[in-house]
Specification:
The structure is a homodimer. Chain A is α/β, with parallel strands linked by helices. The first copy, chain A, has 36 helices and 31 strands. In chain A, strand 30, helix 35 and strand 31 form a beta-alpha-beta unit. At the A-B interface, helix 27, helix 29, helix 30, helix 32 and helix 33 of A face helix 27, helix 29, helix 30, helix 32 and helix 33 of B.
Chain lengths: 883, 883
């Protein structure tokens, strides 16, 4: 006992092993997930190779002191090493019976990007002889040694692994053998010599001989790996705090590669792909785990065949199933275990809650409730909202996916293949001819809607998560990748280039919107059907959530889809998409080009019946649920072509001269359309447009009411920033609606409310609430204006911002709580204070983002509204927020 | 006394006349300005024709009850009419000695747009005989009668005045005379008949015969005129509340047109144009006031000539001067009095504080303090900040101005004439040739700077008060009119059309930026020199204000101007304007087009010495004062031409191929540049640009410090929305600045702060303050983003919004207190809470707007910053806010 030991205030090292460990599963913060679970296993009496865990606090001390260890750590490690020697009966550095250890990192949560495992640590030119002597297996001893050098040099010393692979290949070639396991002990001893030379040349230092030096080198490497760029960016992505740190696990080696009574494998207590309740795993006889990774051998299933573990080592198999079952029961979740069989003895190396597909997650959660293992509330927390999303869309089997040719932003989930096409007309043509097409554009605009409709997937070179393409694709539930920055589209040549490859019109590609990956050719996808289990799960979800969930749907078809996914109404029905339909777009243009109110009204009269029919369909699909209809929002120039040839064609079609049309195009041009003449500003300057829309809504409501449909129209005014704007529009709506109702002698309970999407509207919510029945946050535009980010332009620097950690994540994806969120809270609170019965929802894309849904729940909103395909996701997120 | 009288709770009618009145000057709210002042005159013993005032409360009752009068009002008016009859010895409706009255509107503040005066009310076919009998002057009697019919029919019954003018002209023609005063009594009696026919035909009713009916018709007309469109929009403009209402003044007629011992006139106690302390007025013998308006006669000065009142009626003149002096002394302000001399007897009809020019306002305020009439604080309140502005710019003599050809927004004050020019190069060419030019554009862009510089005035068809043209022109102190919506510019034909007239390149026009008027030809302007009086006044102003006043200045010349106008530093020095100079713009373009960091740095090295020189000049001019320099703000595409021929020329000049340049132009294109890749977003993606700018600033500071200049650079980061943005930029600035200082072995106290112009920055001010030494509100952009108004596009509907009262005024002109102002207060308070020593200012255009300055004072800001020419305006506004 030194003086240093006496003043030591903190314990930095925790032992684990039979019969019990100093740690436990609850100590994940201190011991990391791996260390805590191994300790728990030891305490459960499960055979784990003994070892010790150096705490995350030692790591944070290391980082805070420029790589210095806490006082006394060396002594503490030495004590535990000594304990380990006693427990195993082996000695670290012994030439007779050497103790070998594995060293692994382990943070609170599983985190790729940190240091991987180093196995067989403790070997050197002397101890390798001890290993040989003890096992009587020289080949095993030298094979273990060469593996150790390669692994340690790679992950601790930064010597590229390929150098060693190259040397091994040379040796194989020299000896004329095909595989490493054909190299004998002598050859492997030569390989070890060659490896040491490689280390010397590449790193400028000798490979460390002293097992203690090896151990401390590995510990420092684990600690340093906490701040590797990959780990840092992974933490940023998942919002794990930097101060966590990682633990180090030092564990006595057991060997699955000492002979045919040895094996190693992984197993799951249930099928992680389907959720089926069956023991499931793979193993290899006489092997070490990394042989699988190296692709040298193919593992075998643990059961169901003559070569299975069940068949070959039935007693051990039964033990394994029993231990795994005990672990699942103990942790009340599916376990993913790693095991090794050394000379007929089973060791459990680690256990963790198994990663699983969305389908499996739901099945397992429901099954476990039925088995009485967990309660319903726990079950709901076990499924991530994004897993629900995965469930609803086809995906690419990651096992069968080749290297992607490019990667963009995952704008709308799903996966689809088709022939590349660039022009909308061509897309329509090819689709009519029965081809499956993928629309590839620099960016999309409302003019491209027809092309997007017929495409199976959409791929754009520019744009962010809230670009036109992304929004529309999500609305259509269509797979979409945007902001694929390497992509160069040449419309004229009808081809795109990416990473040196060219794809022409007609070439097949596959787009995966869930990951942002783009593949050459046609890659098979898989899709899961929704079943009784899913329905049961969603019933639980609906029973606990407080937030309502509606859908953004513009068409009767969308409305039907939304209902199928459980939407409780429509939170946003955008009327402008209706305007783009082929049967009316030219009348819309005539309306815009009208020189007088009379001409405008005449054109609107033509649009009225078509618009009314749209609403009839939507109302029918939403029988008994509210439908929020937003009056015309986009600037008028979005409806008018600007390309000379299109202008000319339009002029001919609607019978105006080209000069007049060109003049109008110029007059409508705006420098910043986002901040221009749109929304209620149009309603105020051209009241007859809104009048027509109100008439269509109310006439449609009257019509379906006659058919027994229960209709609840909510008329929503966009882009309000001033109370006077809404007051005036409200007056217009009420006047027109009541006129129609009086004429039809009908009674419809309609309400009038507003988007809150301009910062000023949020700031003056108490004023605006006085003339509003409801608020609906348009968080897309609110984010644009609060940040001063144009969603069409910001992609260029937003990616950089997120990568550099300036922004934790894209604020168009997950709501920015401090800025935009502050406005949402403020407007909700002050609006309700002015009018307690005010209904408050959100209809921006954030309504389908789980983290944002949680915020909306906390901010006290009444409902969220999102794309139909996001409705189940939002339902689960709302339930989890309420738990 | 009826029962109604008994329950009457309110007094609606107030008598005035010798020896005293029921009202007083302090009762303006109830009696209106006119009524209150007439009552005050009566109480002072000044001879006013007696009469009575119907209160503003009667008007508000009338408006609130669909045109119904308060109970008992008729009785009360009848009583006062009776009192008036007793006092004058005449009877209303008498055929023997008829009482005639004038009826005038009169609100709290003088307000054009309401009902004008009706004179001679009480005349009809019978009473006219009484007037004839009493005066023995049939011509006078019938002349009064025909005037009454015309005036009453016009203002009360809505019969167009021209119909009467036409009938009069017919009569003159019939009798072969040139002027109305050549028509004798018989002819005038015929005119009266003709007039009555006109009234019958045009209005469908008989001209009212009953004097009572005449009186009540006039009262109702006055009340109704309160809500005439002109009155409503005038109130909106000056923010007078709608609930004020107007009073009605009924006053016994006195006649200045009964003979040569009669006269009428107006006088000022001091010269309202220069402020000189001399009695000043005009009068006409044997005339009624409206003869001047009709242009029939030219009034004569009251003194200084043989034809003057002084010469012709010396006793009356002395009385008039004495009474007016008494009034000035009583009201302690210059009086504008109206008087009538009836048969040798002087009557004062009304008095009010005189309207005056800016020059006169300052002179009078200073003189009155010296005379001991008012104290300094009162003097400061007597000058409107806008009058100071008027003082600093040439104006068009309103007496000599023709009809304007067009009217736009008054973007930058002053008036200037010149030849129309459309293209920048042509403007430069013509200016070099010694021509004075006016640059006419649809809108301006930074590329037009050279043209704007050489132009004497700038006129644009589009854009609002904060458009590029407006901002730059104000910065240059150059006259500018924007948003002249009728203007159609044809660049190719080199002409503009407006209201059916065409103006070609080279035609002369005159632009008045203070009013928005545009005139054909060259209209003479006048300009006032600043003098000792002005300096004295501004000394007082500076002694009371708490707010600092700085200037926005980008060049050494601007800085010198700013100092001359009393700026206490530069609040905004925009570095991008420097980038557009001819000697460097191509280097800037090379920098932007650079493919690598190295190429970019090489181009920046060329710009560095030029930029350093700019700063040297600015620092020298601001010796001893802080200079806030904003690093590069606009999106890069603003620096690159987009027109094919310009692109080609540039490509040739800087030696890149056209395709590369075109590709870059496309890559830089943004849908909403306002919300795009600019400000600190550039600094983060291209740190070397900001590094160069910091180096130039600090090197310049070191250089001038050596010359003994006291330099205080404040380096400002634009468009910050996130703490991480500012933290990173601050690090860059400090690193580069300290590097330069270490190399030069110098010590400069620089600070680093940020614009607060993105709503999110205001909402997270407590975070951002942690890494900021100062905040400067960029209220232009903050207004754009808070409202969602693009200043370049919003002009189209903002005009409509203000006209319709949806917005009380253009928020780019006067800060929107409820929305943008809330963010300003919130950021100031929360920023200071996080960092008490935080310096807070404003550098948007609002810094020069008096109402906004008042708000900034109340919000507790440290300083405002505005165009150099607005500095004295802001100083006065700040002082008035402090009073």
């Amino acid at each position: 006992m030194t003086a240093a030991r006496a003043v030591r205030s903190k314990k930095y090292v925790y032992h684990f092993g039979a019969p019990r460990a100093e740690g436990a599963a609850a100590m994940k913060e201190l011991l990391g997930g791996k260390g805590a679970n191994v300790a728990e296993m030891a305490n459960l009496g499960i055979p784990v190779p003994p070892g010790f865990t150096i705490t995350t606090e030692a790591c944070t001390h290391f980082m805070g002191h420029a790589g210095g260890y806490p006082e006394g750590l060396h002594d503490e490690v030495a004590e535990h090493l000594h304990l380990l020697e006693k427990e195993t009966g082996k000695q670290f550095g012994s030439t007779d019976n050497p103790l070998l250890v594995s060293v692994r990192s382990g943070a609170r949560a599983s985190m790729p990007g940190m240091m991987d495992t180093v196995l067989n640590l403790g070997l050197n030119d002397e101890t390798v002889q001890g290993l040989y002597a003890r096992t009587g297996n020289p080949r095993f001893a030298f094979d273990s040694y060469r593996r150790f050098i390669q692994m340690y040099a790679d992950v601790v010393m930064g010597v590229p692994s390929q150098l060693f692979e190259h040397a091994l290949a040379n040796k194989r070639a020299e000896l004329g053998v095909a595989a490493d396991n054909q190299l004998d002990a002598g050859a492997l001893a030569e390989v070890v010599d060659a490896f040491r030379t490689i280390v010397r040349d590449a790193s400028g230092t000798e490979f460390p001989h002293d097992p203690d030096a090896q151990l401390w080198g590995a510990v420092a490497a684990v600690f340093r790996s906490w701040n590797s760029p990959r780990a840092v960016s992974y933490r940023a992505m998942y919002r794990y705090p930097d101060h966590w740190g990682t633990a180090v696990n030092v564990q006595a080696m057991v060997f699955g590669n000492m002979g045919d009574d040895c094996a190693t494998g992984v197993a799951f207590t249930r099928d992680p792909s389907t959720g089926e309740r069956r023991f499931f795993g793979e193993y290899m006889v006489n092997a070490q785990g990394e042989d699988v990774v190296a692709g040298i051998r193919t593992p075998l299933p643990v059961d169901g065949s003559p070569e299975s573990l069940e068949a070959r080592m039935p007693a051990i198999y039964r033990d394994l199933v029993g231990l795994a079952g005990k672990l699942e029961h103990h942790f009340t979740d599916v376990q993913d275990v790693e095991f090794t069989i050394e000379s007929g003895r089973l060791w459990m190396l680690q256990t963790r809650n198994a990663k699983r597909t969305g389908r499996a997650a739901v099945r397992i959660a429901v099954d476990m409730v039925e088995e009485g293992l967990i309660d319903v509330r726990t079950a709901m927390k076990r499924v991530a909202p994004e897993q629900i999303d995965q469930l609803l869309h086809p995906t690419i089997d990651p096992e069968r996916a080749p290297e992607p040719i490019a990667k963009g932003l995952p704008a709308s989930p799903g996966a689809a293949s088709g022939r590349v096409v660039f022009a909308v007309e061509r897309a329509v043509e090819m689709a009519k001819a029965g081809e499956q097409v993928v629309l590839v554009r620099n960016e999309t605009s409302p003019e491209d809607i027809d092309g997007m409709k017929v495409a199976r997937a959409i791929l754009t070179a520019t744009g962010g998560m809230s670009s036109h393409a992304a929004l529309v694709a999500r609305g259509m539930g269509k797979c979409c990748v945007v902001g694929c920055t390497g992509l160069q589209v040449d419309y004229e040549a009808r081809e795109f280039k990416v990473n040196g490859r060219a794809f022409r019109e007609g070439d097949e590609i596959t787009v995966e919107g869930s990951t942002g990956n783009v593949y050459a050719g046609r890659i098979p996808t898989m899709r899961v059907e929704l079943d009784r289990t899913f329905d049961r799960f969603m019933e639980w979800v609906d029973s606990v959530r407080r937030l309502g969930v509606r859908a953004n749907a513009d068409t009767p078809e969308d409305a039907v889809t939304a209902r199928r996914f459980g939407a409780e109404g429509i939170g946003l029905c955008r009327t402008e998409h209706m305007f783009f339909r082929e049967d009316r777009i030219d009348w819309v243009r005539r309306m815009i080009l009208a020189g007088t109110r009379e001409e405008r009204v005449a054109a609107l009269e033509k649009i009225l019946p078509m618009q009314r029919d749209d609403f009839v369909g939507v109302f029918k699909a939403m029988d008994g649920y509210p439908v929020t209809i937003r009056l015309l929002d986009p600037p008028l120039h979005e409806f008018i072509p600007t390309q000379p040839d299109e202008v000319e064609a339009l002029a001919r079609r609607i019978g105006v001269d080209v000069e007049t049309l060109e003049a109008k195009v110029r007059a409508l041009h705006e420098f910043n359309p986002m901040l221009g003449h749109r929304g209620c500003r149009l309603g105020i300057t051209f009241p007859e447009v809104y009048e027509m829309q109100v008439r269509a809504i109310v006439e449609a409501a009257c019509a379906v009411q006659k058919d027994g449909v229960d209709v609840e129209p909510e008329i929503m005014i966009p882009l309000v920033g001033l109370k006077a704007e809404l007051a005036r529009m409200r007056e217009l709506v009420v006047k027109e609606a009541d006129r129609v109702l009086a004429a039809k002698r009908a009674k419809i309970d309609y309400t009038v409310g507003t988007m809150i999407e301009v910062p000023r509207a949020a700031l003056t919510a108490s004023e605006i609430a006085q003339v509003a029945d409801f608020f609906s946050f348009g968080t897309n535009d609110l984010t644009q204006m609060t940040f001063g980010f144009s969603r069409d332009d910001a992609a260029k620097f937003l990616v950089h911002y997120v990568e550099e950690g300036i922004l934790p994540r894209d604020p168009f994806e997950t709501i920015d709580v401090d800025g935009v969120g502050r406005l949402v809270r403020l407007a909700t609170d002050e609006g309700r204070r002015a009018k307690p019965e005010l209904k408050v929802g959100v209809c921006g894309e954030h309504g389908g983002d789980p983290a944002s849904v949680r915020f909306m729940h906390e901010a006290g909103l009444d409902y969220v509204s999102c794309s139909p395909y996001r409705v189940p996701v939002a339902r689960l997120a709302a339930a989890q927020a309420a738990l």
